[in-house]
Specification:
Immunoglobulin-like, 3 domains, mainly beta, five-stranded antiparallel β-sheet
Length: 416
């Protein structure tokens, strides 16, 4: 009997709420601050944006929920709240930067407009509402106390959309281990931003993140738009390494900003070899953040396994050479330097000549272990030979030199 009574009471209560258009199902779905939850209308008094029965939710492109006004009842912010969109399509739009527009509806106040020729309701970078909404029947509704007394405020945990994306990240092929990084930063509110770069050897981007100050970024950075102090600064000791300076921020007031700088992977992972992941975090100083990740190949380990050249045969004008195969995942080519001056050969300069894949295409194949060099000076001329194994990212290894002399001219004997 008691359970039946309670069940009946619950059904009656819910039915009563529905008749009053009270959105009981949305009671805990909003994001309005528990303290700063009031707006004020000169002719309707207090409006409560977070109440026992409903809480307003600010989304990236619209508002949801109901506002309670003690003197005039419920104010509906979206036709979806009571499934009337097919009859009357209305609601409050958010452009992502916190600029609100559109209409709300109250049974006892009529239409309420959030953007007029005289005022617009705006949510700032910290989530505070400002401006006025206009109701034709009851006048202005104030979103904040502009008297200076701060009697009331309205705040949400939502903040304007901020974006931070990798455009690209790739290791240079010059053997330095530096990685070219390009990021795209935008804040629809136009706030200045800063960026944090982290890395991990976990190619799935799941764990093992190394963060500042143990990430060595290299400037100077470049940007589409510069702050008053110049390009975004790169300071590895800062919590956000890029754009933390007073006048060297990543500015977004002119639109989306492309920023480029380097990561010195050779310093952080000197023997790194494999798939790494970078993580970007962008902040506008108001606890608003956007993150993105990108994977890339890092190869700071030089090839191994190459042996000194073996002079298999010296002809009158040729040298036949062999060596042990290189051990390298990202192999690019072998190159052999030779000449009659040992210093030039070791320095790959001066009178020394290069013999590589342009001369013998097989030298671009890792499994190649022999080659033949023609065009030498005949008849006992001593040559020095030295081999290098080079990988895709410019890392290379070499071994000690080898020497050999071209064959002397065979003397001919004549019988009379």
């Amino acid at each position: 009997m008691k359970k039946t009574f309670l069940r009946s009471l619950l059904v009656l209560s819910l039915s009563f709420l529905m008749l009053l258009n009270i959105p009981y199902a949305l009671a805990s779905s909003g994001n309005i601050d528990s303290t700063y939850k009031y707006a004020w209308g000169e002719n309707i008094g207090w409006t409560t944006w977070k109440s026992t029965y409903s809480e307003v939710k600010v989304c990236d492109d619209h508002l949801e929920g109901w506002v309670w006004a003690e003197n005039v009842g419920w104010i509906n912010l979206a036709c979806e709240n009571n499934d009337t969109c097919s009859t009357v399509d209305f609601g409050i739009d958010n452009d992502g930067a916190g600029n609100l527009s559109g209409y709300a509806w109250g049974e006892n106040v009529g239409w309420i407009k959030f953007k007029t020729a005289y005022s617009q309701v705006v949510i700032d970078s910290q989530g505070y509402f400002s401006g006025y909404a206009w109701a034709e029947n009851v006048g202005w509704i104030h979103m904040e106390d502009t008297s200076g007394n701060n009697y009331f405020k309205l705040k949400t945990s939502w903040t304007p959309v901020i974006t931070g994306k990798f455009n690209s990240a790739a290791q240079k092929t010059d053997g330095t281990g530096k990685v070219d990084i390009s990021i795209e930063v935008d804040d629809l509110a136009g706030d200045d931003c800063k960026a944090l770069i982290e890395y991990t050897s976990d190619g799935t981007c799941s764990s093992g993140w190394v963060t500042t100050p143990n990430v060595t970024l290299v400037g100077p950075a470049t940007a589409d738009y510069n702050d008053s102090g110049g390009t975004p600064d790169v300071t590895n000791a800062n919590a956000y390494q890029v754009g933390s300076g007073t006048n060297t921020r990543i500015i977004t007031s002119s639109g989306s900003n492309t920023v480029q700088f380097d990561w010195d992977s050779a310093t952080n992972v000197p023997s790194g070899d494999g798939t790494y992941c970078l993580r970007l975090t962008v902040s506008d100083d108001y606890n608003n953040q956007a993150t993105d990740t990108i994977t890339l190949t890092i190869n700071n380990a030089a090839p191994s396994g190459v042996s000194p050249l073996s002079v298999d045969k010296m002809g009158y004008e040729t040298a036949h050479l062999s060596w042990a195969i290189a051990v390298e995942t990202n192999f690019d080519h072998y190159e052999i330097w030779y000449g009659t001056d040992l210093s030039d050969v070791q320095g790959r300069e001066g009178t020394a000549s290069e013999w590589d894949g342009d001369n013998d295409p097989d030298l671009n194949v890792k499994s190649t272990t022999t080659t033949r060099i023609p065009g030498l000076t005949c008849c006992g001329t001593t040559y020095y030979f030295k081999i290098w194994a080079v990988e895709d990212y410019g890392q290379e290894t070499t071994v000690t030199y080898t020497s050999g002399a071209t064959a002397a001219v065979k003397k001919l004997r004549f019988s009379l």
